[in-house]
Amino acid sequence: MSTIRRLAPGDEAALAAVALGAAVLEKHFTLNRALPGPDHRASLEPGALAALVQRIRAVEAALGDGVKRATASEQANAELVRRSLAAGDDLAAGSIVTEAMLTSLRPGTGIPPARLNEVVGRRLRRDVARHELLELSDLE
Predict the structure, then answer these.
(1) Cis geometry, peptide bond prior to residue 107 (ω within 30 degrees of 0)
(2) Can you point out the beta strands (E) in 24-100?
(3) Distance (Å, whole) CA 9 – CA 124
(4) pLDDT attached to residue 3
């Protein structure tokens, strides 16, 4: 059986509480931990309280707001890494587009693959070369 090592109390409980959704924390505060009385020794002095607040704000920032969105660096690369719908083979004007006729290729400057249902079943207005990105204006 292993022995569990007890650690001195620190900020971990407060930080864990914030991570689990706590909106209010109770911490004892003193100007000097050396003052007489039992509460002062277990209280935070101004510098320690400020440090705890900074750590809490860092945890809150790491948790985010729950809304998934691209970061600035991801947005800068989006066109390069995202894909667009493209012709899998040479396609003739007047063809009715099927899913089998299409592929998805980089860059992401054309119709996103997530909008496939807006393309399939429509007629091509012009010839489209193999691997050429489609545009909505190409479709009737």
Answers:
(1) yes
(2) 84-87
(3) 70
(4) 56
Task: Give the angle subtended at the CA of 93 by the CAs of 130 and 137, to the nearest 5°.
Answer: 85
In the prediction, which pLDDT does 75 show? 86
Phi/psi of residue 4, nearest 5 degrees: -85, 125
3-state secondary structure of 128: strand
* C-alpha–C-alpha distance, residues 98 and 51, integer Å: 60
Which is nearest to 121 in space by CA: 85, 91, 95? 95
Q: What does the block give as tokens for 111? A: 């119709």
pTM to 2 decimal places: 0.54
* Cα 11 to Cα 79: distance, rounded to the nearest angstrom: 43
Q: Are 48 and 29 in contact (CB under 8 A)?
A: no
Which residues have a Cβ under 8 Å from the Cβ of 25 and sit 6 or more positions away? Answer: 14, 17, 18, 56
Phi, psi of 103 (to 5 degrees): -140, 175
Q: Side chain identity at 117, as an amino acid letter?
A: N
For every residue of 31-78, DSSP letters joined together read S-TTSSSHHHHTSB-HHHHHHHHHHHHHHHHHH--S-----HHHHHHH
